[in-house]
Amino acid sequence: MGQRVATTESGDGVRIAYSVAGSGPPLVYVAGWLSHLELSWALPAERSFYQALAQGRTLIRYDKPGCGLSERTPPERYSMAQELDALDAVAGAAGVERFELMGASLGAAVAATWAARHPERVARLVLYGGWASGADVAAPEIRTHVLGLVRQHWGLASGLLADVFAPDADAGTRAAFVRYQQEAADAETACAMLRAAYRVDLRDVLPQIAAPTLVVHRDRDRAAPIGEGRRLADGIPGAQFKAVEGRSHLPYIGDANALTRAIRQFLGLPGRHRGAAPTLTARQREVAALIAEGRTNREIGERLGITERSAEAHVERIRYRMDFRSRSQIAAWYVASAAPN
User: Fold this and answer.
1) Fewer CB in 10 Å around end: N or C, the chain?
2) Is residue 140 a contact partner of residue 198, using CB atoms and an 8 Å limit?
């Protein structure tokens, strides 16, 4: 299953990158705090999660303004209004009028707000790992500490947040996710988005949601207490609530199969058919390892005793086989898949 990446412009002229994978009725996915369309497709666990959602659906994802492949905008511009504008733009560019909508983490607040404002356009709504009130996610002193750490020590903070968001990640995936966060956004943008997460207040929004809704939450989520998921479901007329086992906040870490089964069942989809993950030859893995070290094609050729042209050909074969567009994706994939557990 491949991913096609394109761009559009939001109403205020900001370039938004979005991707399309799979086939079938449209499912628009709103990511959480930070996103990067290319690097997320490179992490084997995250890619597998999206492919599970895209079996039987046309999965449409996008990078938030200021994040990932979307245009980098001043952090002070970031707001819920900008988030909703980006979702409008992507739905329009993808040509979908009525669709299923899923939001994860901070994306759950965006999806819930959009669904309340556009009841005629949302066929079904799925909210994962969300919260009704950001002020209740963590104590004030913890929020202040985390915001200060992100702003002043982004490298250290990205490692700390990886431990909070994905305690069940293996060493390789954790290392790749730390790098992923830093490439997805700079410190000020990350801080602005995290501050917005703490300011979420959906208490007046939830009763306005008319779409059939599933709220799904891990029972020991370390980033968003399960009680917040229950508050979301309690506030939405007729919403279903489903608790799944686990403590990782990132949906693709831990028992992702239980999560995708619950989502697919709600969407009326059969069980997922698990296809074989793409693999590389031994020589291609050698090339990928050198790309992860930052080596150029010439340096790869010298290290492996081949010509620069041969090294370039290996890189292109890797990109084709893995459905990657860049060397950074190859590097992220190698880090995530090569480190010991």
Assistant:
1) C
2) no
For residue range 173-223, list pLDDT tens digits in order.
999 999 999 999 999 999 999 999 999 999 999 999 999 999 999 999 989
Judgement on whether residues 233 and 179 belong to the same structural domain of the protein: yes
Sheet containing 3-9, strands listed edge to edge, beginning at the edge strand earlier in sequence: 3-9, 15-22, 58-62, 26-30, 99-104, 122-128, 213-218, 240-244
Give me 231's structure tokens.
């508050």
| Residue range of the domain that includes 133 | 3-266
Tokens coding 183: 């490439």
The domain that contains 310 carries what CATH number?
A: 1.10.10.10
Residue 24 dihedral angles phi and psi, to the nearest 5°: 125, -170
Q: DSSP for 89-109?
A: HHHHHHT-SSEEEEEETHHHH
Is the pTM higher than 0.70? Answer: yes
Token readout for 68 is 């990932």
Number of other residues whose CB lies within 10 A of the CB of residue 337: 20
